[in-house]
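User: quick one - fold this with pyridoxal-5'-phosphate bound?
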Amino acid sequence: MDSIAYVNGSFVPLSQAKVSILDRGFLFADGIYEVSAVLEGKLVDNASHLARLERSLGEISLPLPESIARIIEIQKELIARNKLENGLVYIEVTRGADKGRDFAFPKGAQPTLVMFTSVKDIVNAESAKKGIGVITVPDIRWARRDIKSVALLAQVLAKQAAAEAGAGEAWMVEDGKVTEGGSSSAFILTQDDVIVTRQNGSDILPGCTRKAVVKLAEERQLRVEERPFSIDEALKAKEAFITSASSFVQAVVSIDGKAVANGRPGPLTNRLREIYIGFARETGT
Ligand code: PLP
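Assistant: Sure. Structure tokens for the protein plus pyridoxal-5'-phosphate:
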């Protein structure tokens, strides 16, 4: 059955949801997106995602065509209309359609706002029980990865390579250090029990799940160090994992076919996953 999507003021069946071929999101990837998880009918850490949406839009001087309060109403209406229990709500804002294909910002074009939902049982995902393998690829992205731009070609290629290798994610590597996953933040647990993840900056997306997990870990007196790490260090680590809205916390059990520790999800990863699911349940809106 067709789910309901939102396109520029209207709720329409997904198969009939359309934007112009002149839309700048289509022509130039001139747009920003955001993804919030839905757990048991409630949005997870949504304020954090909407704050990042506003920040990304600000960085490319693109006004949000609706207020944040209205965006939340639309998210909730989509969840209700689609009877979504567990899954994701996607938001995309582009600079809209002009009369042609001028690179500079068009004058008077109305931004496009598109939203839709998808079903995903994140808590019971098989991949979370077994952990995933990752492959490594060079990070060939642009220099402003802190902006959640819809220009995702480098990640499409990275994740396609991962899929072809039977892996669940690609870790992107720059100057000998992991930046992040194709659509997730990367973590390791060192032999002396320090949780390591790269510090925020223009070379990674500031993950909302990463931020929440770091805070939840620190509140429990777990040691966290925000710094880059190498693949060599990851292969010598006790545990490795990723975080994202669409996977929460998920173990990484191999890198380029080599096992991390015993090749099974580690106890700290499992604990952080349970802690995050608890946080998601308690704070969902
Ligand atoms: N890094 C990249 C490149 C991503 O695309 C994503 C999510 O799509 C993340 C990290 C994780 O961010 P979040 O936890 O906010 O979903």
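One thing worth noting: The chain has a mean pLDDT of 97.
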